[in-house]
Design a protein that fits this description.
The two termini are 41 Å apart. The chain has an 8-stranded antiparallel barrel. The chain is mainly beta. Strand 4 (101-125) and strand 5 form a beta hairpin. It is built from 2 helices and 11 strands; from the N terminus they run αβαββββββββββ.
Length: 285
Amino acid sequence: MRCVKYLVATGAASLLSSFVLAADMPSIMAPPSLQVEPVQDSGGWYLRGDIGFSNQSVKGLSVTDPVLNAGVVPGSLTETTAFDTGGIFDLGVGYRFNNWFRGDVTGQYRGKANFKGMDVFNTPVGGGAVTPVVNTYNASKSELLFLANAYVDLGTWWNVTPFIGAGVGTSRVTISNFTDASLIAPAFGPPGLAYALAGSQWNFAWAAHAGLAYRVNPDLTVELAYSYVDLGNSTTGHSAPFGLPLTPFVFKFSNITSNDLKLGVRWSLDPAPVYVPPEPAVHKG
C-alpha cells in the first residue's frame, strides 16, 4: 500500500514540475507584430499602349454652297459613302483603384483612311430641262483622339477578366486631298472637277468599350478590346473648280463614327505585393 502511495506522489510531483517548466518557456508563436498577412493587390498606377484598326462611316456629305444646293430637285438625291480601314496607335496612363474599377487617360493617333463617295441627283439645266448629275468624291481622313476612360472589371477566371467601359473627350478630325468629279449628261456640257483645301475641326467625342484582359504576370496584362467611337463632324478647307479662284464654300462630313478593334498591353508601375513570412520563434537556452 505504501508503495502505491509513493508512486502516486512521485507522478504528481513530476507532472507539476512539467507545468512550471512550460510556463517559463517562450511561446512558439511569433509575437503579433511579426505575423504579416498577405497583402491584397488592390490597385496602382499603370501605363498602357494599343494598336489596332478602324472601320469608319459617315452619315452624310454636303456642300455649303447655296447655289448648288438649290439646284437639287427635292427627293432626287441618293448618296453612298465608304472609308477604307485605318491604323490606330495610342498611349495612356491610368490607375487601378481596386479589383473592380480602374480609369485612364489616352491619346490616340488614327491614321489616314481613304474616303470614297458618290451621289446622284436631278437638276434643271438650260431652259428648265431636268437631267441627272453624278458626283464622285475622294479624300483622306485622319484624327487625333483624347479620352478620359473608366472601366468596370467583371471578375477573373483563369487569369481572364472581361470588362466594359466608357470614355469622353475631344477629337481633331482632318480632311485632306479632297476632289469632286461631276458628270452631267453630255448634251449639257463636259464633266467638271473641283477640289478643296485640307481642313480640320475639333469636336466633343465619346466612346464605349468592351473586351477581355489576360494577366500574364502581376505586372503585365494583355487586352483585346472593341470600341465604338463617335468622332463628331469635320469639314474641308475652301473649295473651287480647277483653274478658278477659291470660294468660301466647304464640304461637310456629318457624324463620323467608327468600330475599332485593338490589341493592347498594361504595365503596372507599382511593385507587386510580396508576402513576408513571420520571423522564426527564438527559444531561450
